[in-house]
Design brief:
The chain is of the alpha/beta class. It has 13 helices and eleven strands. The protein has a single domain (2-221), classed as Queuine tRNA-ribosyltransferase-like (TIM Barrel, Alpha-Beta Barrel). Strands 3-2-1-9-8-7-6 form a seven-stranded parallel β-sheet. Strands 4-5 form a two-stranded antiparallel ribbon. It is globular and about 60 Å long.
């Protein structure tokens, strides 16, 4: 399964930036080891500097239209401008399995409008990855699975893990599975931040993206494969709560985690103090989970 780190370039974490220059050798290796990237048109569209950084790093990206962010911020993404962007920046768009990695201009809570945007983009010689949103009628998903090699699932930011599991399980274990127990199409999961759900479905998902590397670091935490979220910053409000922080875990757990961190070339004290150091660890750890190593 390919794991796309979402927002690395929007966060200015490119290989020529000042943040990269502050990293240790192990942290550099973790950042450089991130090989799949997703960036939002909402942020790229009016920021040529970000596009220059992507090109300078020599990487290809999955272009997401940014529908959820636009919806949350009350912003508007116009179809002609999005199509123009896709045509102009073909050289930075990744291709896998013969499919260009770019999203349809989906419209939150409006499946019919998303479908119209899909057809309009196809009329402009663009074949984006279609999207079925959590809560929509799944008849459209069945149609897409028959017509396309790749489909995506969206609407996973916000709902609880339990409600997402109730939605994803029948789709990935039944609806999109053929009589030979194979997936009828490749499936991309937008914004899947639940590590338990990622682990549960990683054999069925072809790829997914997440900002977990960034979000958890912001909230003073890092991802420990085979364990989960671990708070580590001294500024964390959980620093003195038993079993809620690196310093308050059982001694055996704490020493095991420290040994794993040091074996990877990282330093516990550095993880405590700066977000960008936790970014590096989380990029490495999240990739490991996606590959079934934790």
């Amino acid at each position: 399964m390919r794991v796309y780190a979402a927002g690395i370039y929007a966060t200015r974490f490119d290989l020529r930036g000042t943040t990269y220059g502050r990293l240790t050798e192990a942290e550099c290796a973790a950042r450089y080891g991130a090989t799949h990237f997703l960036e939002s048109y909402l942020y790229l569209g009016d920021n040529p500097r970000l596009i220059e950084n992507i090109g300078a790093d020599g990487v290809k990206i999955f272009v997401d239209c940014g529908a959820y962010s636009a919806y949350a911020q009350g912003a508007t993404i116009t179809r002609p401008k999005y199509i123009e962007f896709i045509h102009e920046y073909q050289d930075i768009i990744a291709t896998f399995d013969g499919i260009q990695m770019m999203s349809v201009l989906d419209v939150i809570d409006a499946a019919a409008r998303t479908h119209r945007n899909l057809r309009s983009m196809e009329d402009e010689r663009i074949t984006p990855i279609t999207c079925a949103q959590n809560g929509e009628d799944l008849a459209r998903l069945d149609e897409y699975a028959e017509q396309y090699k790749y489909v995506s699932l969206g609407g996973m930011v916000g709902p609880s893990r339990e409600s997402l599991r109730a939605w994803l399980d029948p789709i990935l274990r039944d609806r999109l599975v053929d009589d030979d127990a194979r997936m009828r199409c490749k499936v991309y999961a937008f914004g899947l931040t639940s590590v338990p759900l990622l682990t549960r479905h990683r054999q069925r998902l072809a790829s997914l993206d997440s900002t977990i590397w960034l979000q958890w670091a912001y909230f003073s935490a890092f991802l420990m494969p085979n364990f989960g979220m671990v708070k580590i910053s001294e500024k964390s409000p959980d620093a003195n709560i038993e079993g809620e922080h690196f310093d308050t875990f059982d001694a055996v757990y704490g020493e095991d985690m420290r040994a794993d961190i040091e074996a990877a070339g990282f330093e516990v004290e550095r993880l405590r103090t700066k977000q960008y150091r936790r970014w590096c660890w989380n990029l490495r750890a999240f990739q490991a989970v996606g590959e079934g190593k934790g």
